[in-house]
Amino acid sequence: MPRSRPFVAVVGLLLLAPVCAEYLSAYDTSTGDLGTLLAGFLVLAPLYGAPALLIREVGRRSGLGWPGLLLLAAAFGVLQAGLVDQSVFAEDYRSIAYWPELWDPTYVPGLDLSAYAAVAFVLGHVVFSFAAPILLVEELSGRRAEPWLRTRGIVAASVAYVAAAALVLVDHVDTEGWQLSGPQLVGVLVVTGVLVLAAFRVRRPTGQPAPGRVPSPWLLLAAGVALELGLSWSLVWVALVPFCVALVALGVGLHRWGRRAGWTVEHALLLVGGALATRAVGGFFGESLGDTPDWARHTHSTVMTVLVVTLVVLAVAHARRTTPRPAPGSVVDR
């Protein structure tokens, strides 16, 4: 696959980020409605695609590697779920019927938030809104490491994100009738700042790759499936705590494997591919808000599943052609 122009990669990321963040799970009132889905890009591309571009651009220009990019993604995830739509702190949100089942079982009184909502929404942003789209578009475009944007592009993406985030925040205050307390706002900003600082403390490893084996890429595919299923089933403390332990173990494993010579971009692609495909297939079995007919939801989920599976297959095929043997270092650190 030839290298695309940066413009194609930029547009691809602007569109893929909102698809993975919002459309994949077929949960909203827009499900199956092509006109509404297309119109939604006017807000969702700046809301998800613009920060994905900024995360990638800052990370690549600063040489952060994937650990740093993931920390920046977590910072944006905290900002998005904690401040922009404030869903982590919402006892009732958009009059969603199943919201109490999601929010109440892991309510933390001292923080006035749902632990499950905090984990699910922030992790969802890290994986689906930012990391997976960035990884796929980088591989498919053939432009993994170099910058895509000039200064004016960075400014435009920043302005677009702030405008979209402000629109969502104003809508939240108008429709929900409440906003964060002072301590909650300070907490969100402090956590966001700590994650950003941590991102710039993590640097690309230098020197020879570490010795040791890496798991089969297919095991990473299974881990991606388990990640999404575990997230969906962790609504209560007895499930959420083991899930968080497993998530930390996976993170430690990725950090170690990513520094070994046998690690390739294919491992990372199959990891996110498993999570993306599982979320898309889950749309067949879930419920959409509003009065979405079953046929519309199933058609929507079919298109989403075919789309993500096709993108992952093409990206893996490209990675195999351009990386015929394991390269030193890691996709996590490139």
Brief characterization of the structure:
This protein is 68% helix and 1% strand. The protein is mainly α and 334 residues long.
Which labels suit this protein?
mainly alpha, 1% strand, two-stranded antiparallel sheet, 2 strands, 334 residues
Written description of the protein model:
- The chain has 334 residues and is mainly alpha-helical.
- The protein has one domain.
- It is 68% helix and 1% strand.
- It contains eleven helices and two strands; from the N terminus they run H-H-H-H-E-E-H-H-H-H-H-H-H.
- The chain has helices at residues 6-23, 34-62, 65-84, 99-103, 115-141, 151-176, 182-199, 217-232, 237-257, 265-282, 294-322; strands at residues 107-108, 113-114.
- A two-stranded antiparallel ribbon has the order 1-2.
- Strand 1 (107-108) and strand 2 form a beta hairpin.
- Helix 2 (34-62) packs across helix 5 (115-141).
- The longest helix is centred in the first third of the chain and has 29 residues, at 34-62.
- It is globular and about 55 Å long.
- The two termini are 20 Å apart.
- 43% of the residues are buried.
- Residues 326-334 have low confidence and may be disordered.
